[in-house]
Amino acid sequence: MSNAVSLADVVKRYHRGRESVEVLHGLDLDIAEGEFVAIMGPSGSGKSTLLNLIAGIDRPDSGTVMVAGQKIDQMSGGELTRWRASAVGFVFQFYNLMPALSGAANVELPLLLLPLSRSERRARVEAALEIVGLAERARHKPSELSGGQQQRVAIARAIVSDPPILVCDEPTGDLDRETANEVLDLLRTLSRDHGKTIIMVTHDQKAADVASRQLHVDKGQLVDVAPPRSRADAAPLAEAGRLA
Amino acid sequence: MKFLRYHPLVWLGLLAMKYFPLVWAGLTRKKLRTAFTLLSIIVAFLLFGLLQGVNTAFNHGVEGAHLDRLVVQGKVSMTDQLPLALRDRIAAVPGVVGVTYASWFGGYYQDTKSNVFSFPVEASTYFGLFPEIVLPKEQLDALIKTRAGAVIGRKLAEKYGWKIGDTIPLKSTIWVKSDGTANWDFRVVGIFDQPSDTGQEQRLFFNSDYFDEARTLYKGQVGWYSVRIDSPSHAAAVSESIDRVFANSDHETKTVAEKEFTQSFLKQMGDINFIVSSIVGAVFFALLFLTGNTMMQSVRERIPEFAILKTIGFSDQAVLSLVVAEGLVVALTAAAFGLAGSVVAFPMLESMVGVPRLPMSVLAVGLFYAVLLALVTTLLPGLRVARLNLVDALGGR
Questions:
Q1: Fewer beta carbons under 10 A from the terminal one: N or C of chain A?
Q2: 8 Å CB contact of A48 and B311
Q3: Inter-chain contact B394–A98, Cβ cutoff 8 Å?
């Protein structure tokens, strides 16, 4: 199985005025296709920076970053934007939905960038909402949905354009235990049944336990890398015919 | 029909339809704020439409001036009267092919606010020099034959319901009759049209002879001479020649093109152009700050939303376009309502400006200003969003 993510000797520094702070110190990391990886670590350890580099939101100062078969560390801002649209789906702690749009319209957003007809977009949105179990609430606005339902809409938005990789930044951080478990089940299903590579940053050990592998970041370096656990064979989402 | 799919306008329309829900969502996020912004722009454009309409209507008369006509007036002031005896000497100047004269009567009907733009003229020559005034020959003959006769424009006739045969009692703010009153009665003997500029149909012309006999002052004098010349290209030379004839006399003249004379005449009522420009300028200046501040605030509140759009693949240009599109929708919608209001309200100003409809040019300029307003007020917040640092924005910094 080839790697979905491969980082080699990655260094990242942040500049605040004259001060330069090195957040990641020559980090190496490989994540296989279809893996569900949890990244843990204390605040300020560099886990969000690592996630940003993998997601193409930020660029390293040195080292190489290969994600979904593309070397993205030297891409321009415009190239990264286009690459993100096709390669990565995003799930955030606070859902980050457009409050004035319905659930379906929120899910449709990434599809506006693709050359699809209106009916094609509608079909994909319905399929994505069905996967997350919210088809019947498509017309509701975020304010009319519970936290768990909003996060499901956010997950539907992340998968609707069928990207191979999902990056999730504290996806259960704003949810109660029961709802969090439902969201984690959904993420596990997406990894196991649809072949998505999921990289999740979390502070929650119970959430991390759901992942097939746990990575611990501390002071800009990977420490205590747990071995991968076995997982069921997965079929890519597009092949499953759900979003095609 | 397949090629239509690729026509730029069709493509733009499809693109607008695709992204409109996103633009609409931005506008309806804070409905009350959007409503107040719309309202302020509507009022501004209503004011713009009315004021600019008045200005354009006034200027229309200036633009309609004929290049082959000159006006001879007193050198010191246009209110200086000139002796009737100058007429033959003006006619003898090379290049002059016709001369007539007129005066300002300062008439009103019943109320000083109901101005009637009335002029004593030499009926036998005046209408020949102004062919744009369409008056049937028998009515012109009736005017020449009727001492206290008058011809009125169709708009004026419609305004007061006057018809041929009616006697019109006017008063003058300037001229007193030998009986000591300022009451002047005229009998309507004709109604004229002026299709090239219907605003001029608010005027009234009557016989200068009757005027000269009845008034107590300035007998044998006229307000100005109108002169037709053989070619517009000779205007400067003929003007100079006429003024040279009367140089160092008791009645030195200043000969100007009809356009310049009309402008000076309008300035007697105030520099409309300056007043309108000042008011409209002040209103738009205030509007720029108001709308600009609102757009800035609206965008600032939605930084996390724009950050998400950029994260999921919207380019810098796309988010900039969304912000500009919001501004365009607000400005153009409000401007359309404001200008529509001024179209509806403008006929109420007809008695003042003499033009029944808001000139189309005002609508075009108004819509252009709306686009300009949208671009100026959204460019800064739009660029801010386009240059958003995703790491900071997503991190809530």
A1: N
A2: no
A3: no
**In this complex, do B391 and A57 lie within 8 Å of one another by their Cβ atoms?**
yes
Q: Which residues of A touch B19 (CB under 8 A)?
A: 112
- In chain B, the residue whose alpha carbon lies closest to the alpha carbon of A99 is B29
User: Would an 8 Å CB–CB cutoff place A99 in contact with chain B?
Assistant: yes
**B122: DSSP letter:** -
Whether the CB of A100 is below 8 Å from some CB of chain B: the reply is yes
| Distance between B43 CA and the closest CA of chain A, angstroms | 28
Does the distance separating the beta carbons of B28 and A85 come in below 8 Å?
Answer: no
Starting at the edge strand found earlier in the chain, the sheet holding A3-16 runs A19-32, A3-16, A62-67, A70-71
Q: Can you give the residue ranges of every domain in chain A?
A: 35-59+84-233
Contact in structure between A27 and A34 (CB atoms under 8 Å): no
What span, in angstroms and rounded, lies between the C-alpha atoms of B128 and B131?
Answer: 6
pTM of this prediction?
A: 0.71
Q: What is the pLDDT along chain B (397 residues), one digit of tens a residue?
A: 444 455 666 666 667 777 888 898 888 888 999 999 999 999 999 999 988 888 777 776 666 667 889 999 998 877 789 999 899 999 999 999 999 999 999 899 998 888 899 999 999 999 999 999 999 999 999 999 999 999 999 999 999 999 999 999 999 999 998 888 999 999 999 999 998 888 788 899 999 999 999 898 888 999 999 999 998 888 889 999 999 999 988 889 999 988 887 777 666 666 677 888 888 889 888 888 888 999 999 999 989 899 999 999 999 999 999 999 999 999 999 999 999 999 988 887 766 666 677 888 889 999 999 999 999 999 999 999 999 888 888 876 6
DSSP state of A226: P
Task: Copy the structure tokens of residue B164.
Answer: 């041929």
User: A157: nearest CA in chain B?
Assistant: B312
Query: Which CATH topology does A35-59+84-233 take?
Result: Rossmann fold (3.40.50)
- What CA–CA distance (Å, rounded) separates B153 from B200? 7
Cβ-based contacts of A78 with chain B (< 8 Å): 315-316
Contact A109 B19 (CB under 8 A): no
Q: Which amino acid appears at position A222 of this protein?
A: L
CA angle B85, B90, B94 (to 5 degrees): 155
* Contact (CB, 8 A) for A92 and B307: no
| Cα Rg, chain B, nearest whole Å | 29
Task: Look at phi and psi of residue B313 and say left if phi exceeds 0, alpha if psi is from -120 to 50, else beta.
Answer: left
Is A81 in Cβ contact with B315 (below 8 Å)?
Answer: yes
Question: How many CB pairs below 8 Å do chains A and B form together?
Answer: 65
Cβ contacts of A155 within 8 Å, gap of 6 or more: A91, A132, A166, A171, A183, A186, A187, A190
Would residue B257 be called left, alpha or beta, if left means φ above 0 and alpha means ψ between -120 and 50 degrees? beta
Q: Work out the number of other CB atoms within 10 angstroms of the CB of residue B396.
A: 9
